[in-house]
User: What shape does this take?
Amino acid sequence: MKEEQSMQNLTVLGTGVLGSQIIFQSAYKGKDVVAYDISDEILAKLPQRWEYLKKQYKRDISDATDEKLDAAVSRIRATADLKDAVKDADIIIEAIPERLDIKQSTWEKVSEYAPAKTIFCTNSSTLLPSKIAPFTDRPQKFMSLHFANEIWKFNTGEVMAQPKTDPAVFEQVAKFAEEIGMVPIRVMKEQPGYLLNSLLVPLLNAAADLWVRGVASAEDIDKTWRIATGAPSGPFQIYDTVGMMTPYNLSKDSKDPVQREFAERIKKDYIDKGKLGKSTGHGFYDYE
Assistant: This one.
């Protein structure tokens, strides 16, 4: 039993769409979780997020009772103090905005405070862990652990090392992923986007291109994909699930002018109006 709980204390950096899911899922599976974000104002919104996730779990997981869900929330502690957030961590998962400079500077600060035992993981969707590892004080304990959105349902945990990662740490993280209900996917070579996003991003970019150039509406692009492939969701429904901030951050500095225009349009028509995707009730589609 002791070995199974070797990484009991988790800290998650970032409480956005995916960060909050990692927090809740880990707590639901019995981990003690510290939720860190940069301000108390952001953290004050978490109780509303937990209520939203409780409803999703009760919809999708047959044995998700009120008692289990309340117990998960009781295992979560929120703080805007980084030193406090990491002081007891066995493992830290970073899920902050998808900008290399922000991730690098964050890990520099974390390295000052985290105990020597702590394993560091980034959930970055597109950035290679080898670009971040030199900004930590323990590259041998730094790697990627990547989740798909709605992780309680689409429960892959892509485990990806960088050249200096200790193989034993790689296996520890794969085991941790399994403990929190994920199916560990061992990515054997550094790959931007891992497996999932290497397949998904070209689809989303192609959909954005069609939409920006006025070839078809978001609804008809989605309808075509769903009918022709049998997929449950079209690309713009996926954008809504991911949330608008991730595609905006990934597209705004693109070399492709169409992708830059896509970022400008979603900022003007959606982000600036508070339509951040499914989690806020509004995105390309409106949700109950």
About this structure: Confidence is low (pLDDT under 50) at residues 1-5.
